[in-house]
Amino acid sequence: MSAPFEERSGVVPCGTPWGRWYQTLEEVFIEVQVPPGTRAKDVSCSLESRHVALSVRGREVLQGKLFDSTVTDEGTWTLEDRKLIRIVLMKTNRDAGNCWTSLLENEYAADPWVQDQMQRKLTLERFQRENPGFDFSGAEISGNYSKGGPDFSSLEK
Fold this sequence. Notes:
Layout: H1 5-9, E1 14-15, E2 19-23, E3 27-33, E4 43-47, E5 51-56, E6 59-65, E7 76-80, E8 84-90, E9 102-104, E10 107-109, H2 112-130
Antiparallel strand pairs: 1-2, 2-3, 3-8, 4-5, 5-6, 7-8, 9-10
């Protein structure tokens, strides 16, 4: 079985003071750097449809209203190597046109160049799903790719 699209094509991260976040068509990933030796019992994480709250050793790291809604029951967090917390949120709207411009409303926004690269990547990921026999992971895209690019679904095959 081939690797998922994002593993072949890489990710387009948005850096933050605490780590980074990035997205695919279906998910939003949040990676938070924590002090080495952090234990799971030191972590408090609340994941709701439109809200996230994370504190480590009683210190708030991340808290606020998410840019868009997520599927509450499918959100997870893990502590990796006792130094990285990875939060995975499942987007409610999994359309290529749903490219989050920031992680939280009015906070941790991607700069215009990163936002453009994120939108290109989601558009290519959409093309990959619509055409499973082709590999778009190394493709370049130009032209109208905002809001997921052109819709070819009505064309006859």
